[in-house]
Amino acid sequence: MSSKSLNQPRKESDLYDAKKWYSAILARPEVGPVGVMLLLFGMLGYFSIPAGDFSLNPFSGEGFNALAIRNNLRVISQLGIVAIGAGLLIISGEFDLSIGSMIGFAGGVMAMILRWGFAVVIPYVSFEGGLHIETFTLFKITDVSPLLAICITLCFTLFFGWLQGFIIVKTGLASFIVTLGGLFFLRGLTEVCYRAFNKKPDQTAGSTTVTEIPDIKNIVNIPGHGELERDVAKNLPQEQLLELLKTVPEATVLKLTEKLTYINEKVAASKTLLLKSKGVKGLEKALENAIASGNEGMVATLQDKIANFKIDPATAKIVTDVDIAKAYIDTLHSARPVANFFGGDIMEPLFDWLYFTVDWNVNNYGNQFADGLYSCLMIWFLLALICYVLLSQTQAGNWIYSTGGNLNAAKANGVPTNKVKISLFMFSAFCATMFAACQVFETNTADTAKGNLKELEAIAAAVIGGVVLTGGFGTVVGIIVGAAIFGIAKEAFFYIPGVDGSFYRVFLGIVLLASALTNENIRKRVIGSV
Amino acid sequence: MIDKKPLIEINKLVRKFGSFTALNGVSLNVYPGEVHALLGDNGAGKSTLIKVLSGIHSATDGIIKVDGEEVHFNSPREASDAGIGTVYQDLALNALTSVTRNFFLGREIKKGPGAFGIMQMNEMNEITIREMKKIGISIANPEQPVGTMSGGQRQTLAIARAIYFGAKILILDEPTSSLGQKQQMEVLKTVKRVKNLGNIAIILITHNEIHARLVADRFTFLSLGEVIGSGLSSELGGDDVKRLMAGGADIGDLAKELENVT
Questions:
Q1: What is the domain range of residue B211?
Q2: Which of A178, A194, A248, A497 has the fewest Cβ atoms surrounding its Cβ within 10 A?
Q3: Is B137 inside any structural domain?
Q4: Closest chain B C-alpha to A394 CA, distance in angstroms
């Protein structure tokens, strides 16, 4: 027996070593995913350095141009939106395989309502002229506003979310099987609806897409013309455009002229550079041939020519009044704020600033690379913020954790666990609907394959983000990071020269497995069995 | 002690499940500031009795009086509203969340609309520390997951929670089973401290006569749904307890029974 235990009896707490400062950090569910995300950023940064160059700024390569950021953030945020719904549901101990089909279904419903309107039709059996089924149209709204279309769609999707949750809590069936049913049911229902509504007059099967939806988010109010799509407005006859310009204040015209002049000069300068490099390239090829054939006289001439290569700089286009009028139409605010909220762009001033002032957001032709970011980023951000507060600060959050962590304990303490679960199934459907709204209003099309496999990607993102599939463990920050990892990996591999882009799936498979192991380890550490 | 009014009176309680009679006229009184040990073999009816008292089952016949008033429970909520707090063997704790979140689970202090109200974490933390300290456990960090606590500490947490949320009659279901020696002592200390608070009546269900002897003031022995003996701790001899624990059989009879086994 050691002298210590003679003087002082050993206490239970002595069994544990004093906690190191980092063990508190290591017990957080976000540790693993944040590490992976940093690794990915490093990879993306390193591999996107253009070949042959070396730059201290790792983000100077192709992977981080404005357009890539715009597209990458769209992938991330769309996945992020559904991952939050899926993640919260997993934390409460259930999961939802119908998310992808729900996206397709919601997108289809929304697009069809926008295209053809909404009607409630009651079928009944008629005996007049032989037994057959007649229909009675209770009411029909054509020209449904974007907000109403989203609300009607939500009625359907929230109902299906509720129904799945209700079946699961009442029958005690596994959510896996019930939502797997939902996956087939909703996808099939969507296809059937598409074909039925798209049926051609000659009764051949209709297509499974909806197109020809007007570009609702770009409808603007043109003085003297009323509401027009931006593209239609820009193609008005010249006289009308000039007429429109007269209504524009002097200061705005000046500002637009200044901007257009800048753009035209930029385009001209890029054109000059392109032409020059094209010309030099031909000479360099000739030089190579000359060196190979050993013609020294020719080599000297060509070298001289390359050194003194000159080209007349391209002249900048003159800014016309019609150009200004068109640019003015671009600056008008959308007359359909709801459609713009879901399908439009955000942070345009920042991207303008990056183009006009910083001189970075420029493509090879001198034009602005990206106009802004897709607004699904904002929707993801808003959802994430609300859910972060909900899960970590509110009573509902505590209920979600306890429902997933120990269902019987939650019930014994009066937590309405069935309500919690059903609400989260509905929330998952809500997230899928938001995803669909972003897609429909951005692309103005919908088709039946939309959202395919998204349910599995969402679950994977949540697990990569530190959510444990058995429930009760995970955070919203983790889910956000998980979605980011998924999205970055998807893009990053395309910027690694000489590597097949599909390797991202191989990578994700490994990350998923590693995350699941790490999560389980952290969970065990939290409940003290390690 | 004699002139005290019982906090809960149970009179000729009967509970039948179809043709099976689990409780056949059980009567007992529990007084504030006392530990009433309820002992008996498996199948004696202890669990059924607790379930009736905590509102999970309703009584087929008989009277339960809390504070002199007759009560009928149709749900666990009604029982806990009447001041009966039950701490089950599984403790109803979520090991993955913090001590405070468990303490207030289902009854969070919040500001704001309905379930979306923001939890007042600081206030809840303070209350948790204070209430745990009252019955003898000081926790340094109320944000630590319950999973990191020892079995005894968890028991204390569950008891403190029941008391804070208005339990006048505390039912402890086998609180010392599945614990190590040291932790069992910890739980018994907690029981003693709760008893010393003076206003709470404790019903202690246990298999362990030693533990019952250490803290209980009164004993009731159940066998096959009936009370086969009861009394004050001071009146019962060690052999009585042993005999009654064994369902009324004498230790000698048991020895004989074993001898006949070949």
A1: 8-94+166-259
A2: A497
A3: no
A4: 4
